[in-house]
Amino acid sequence: MKAAQWDPHQKKIVVNEVPIPEPEESQFLVKMISASLCHSDLMAMAAEGPPGQNVAKPVTIGHEGVGRIERIHPSAEGKGFKVGDVIGFLYIIRSCFECEGCMVHNLHCKTGKQLLQGFTADGFFSEYALADYHNSIILPEGLNPKTAAPIFCAGITELKPGDWLGVVGCGGLGQLATQYAKAMGCKVVGVDISDEILATCKAQGADAVFNSRSNKNYVKELLELTGGGVKAAAVFSNADAAYAGAPQIIKLGGVLMVIGIPANPLSVSSMDLTLGKFKVKSESTGIPQRMGKAVEFTAKHHIQPEVDQRKSLDEVQHMVEAMKKGQSIKRMAVVFE
């Protein structure tokens, strides 16, 4: 099969012929329908793998995917899935999915056997991939499998109807957050440095958008619009400047939500925290036990990611270059069928 792999020696994505993987305990072999690119993939390439690990051989990238079950390991039989099911899935394999660590995030599994697909194990930019049944859910009707892959990447903080959410970084996941927040009855203000990206966010329901680069008065205008600031500012950008500016738009006692992963450590004022000016929370994909409710909500409210669909794995390197240059307006995905 073909797979788009990060080659640490050539420092680029190459499409290689690799063997079709064999499902292990608790796993399915999945024929991929779509796989989408995330900023986290770029971080892994820049670091040549997770911290403390030197990746000496190519690894298939991608941790956002949707596919059709092709084969089921005997240990995964009778778990509510069958060959032919279209599933979405998370990207950590070989964890136990039940220990104290796994209840926080499967990367904290106490067994120490967990692997992160797309980073320490082969990911989803390939014709076939592996998925653990614990991590999988049958895609509800109404969710397009060609564009649903980004749904399985990030989350946002809890808000009440009428609250203002600040979406800082209005690319693919920021646009999804806008749709989720509107479905929850919240008001949304988007902040980005690209007018084109902001226009896409506005089209997806944002009540207001601000260009933080070209509008020098955006903080003042945003505070006036929201009556003192947003209840939560969810930062989907990985830029240091995005995190530096976010506290300015948060209402007193609000939340700074850490989702985008910058290369440098996060810098916040300890005085602001001790005085209760704002709190800091963070979220990732969550754990499989919470996935069903999230996917059900997504389908119920007809939330659909805006996806730039590509037709070939040969385009993945171009996708990576576009994301690095900030030229991607929406999520980019390879659609296999």
Write up what this structure looks like.
The chain has helices spanning 39-47, 172-183, 195-203, 218-226, 240-245, 270-274, 288-300, 316-324; strands spanning 2-7, 12-17, 27-36, 59-60, 64-72, 86-89, 92-93, 115-116, 128-132, 136-138, 164-168, 187-192, 208-211, 230-235, 250-258, 278-282, 307-310, 331-335. The strands form 4 sheets. Strands 3, 5, 6, 9, 10, 17 and 18 form a 7-stranded mixed β-sheet that branches. The protein has a 6-stranded parallel β-sheet with strand order 13-12-11-14-15-16, with helices on both faces. Strands 2-1-4 form a 3-stranded antiparallel β-sheet, with helices on one face. It is globular, with a radius of gyration of 20 Å. Helix content is 21%, strand content 28%. It starts with a strand and ends with a strand.
What is the secondary structure topology, with strand pairs?
Layout: E1 2-7, E2 12-17, E3 27-36, H1 39-47, E4 59-60, E5 64-72, E6 86-89, E7 92-93, E8 115-116, E9 128-132, E10 136-138, E11 164-168, H2 172-183, E12 187-192, H3 195-203, E13 208-211, H4 218-226, E14 230-235, H5 240-245, E15 250-258, H6 270-274, E16 278-282, H7 288-300, E17 307-310, H8 316-324, E18 331-335
Parallel strand pairs: 11-12, 11-14, 12-13, 14-15, 15-16, 17-18
Antiparallel strand pairs: 1-2, 1-4, 3-5, 3-9, 3-18, 5-6, 6-10, 7-8
Look at the structure and give the mean pLDDT: 91
CA distance, first residue to last residue = 15 Å
Radius of gyration: 20 Å
Structural class: alpha/beta
Number of strands: 18
Biggest sheet statistics: 7 strands, mixed
User: What characteristic shape results from the CA principal axes?
Assistant: globular
Poorly predicted parts = none
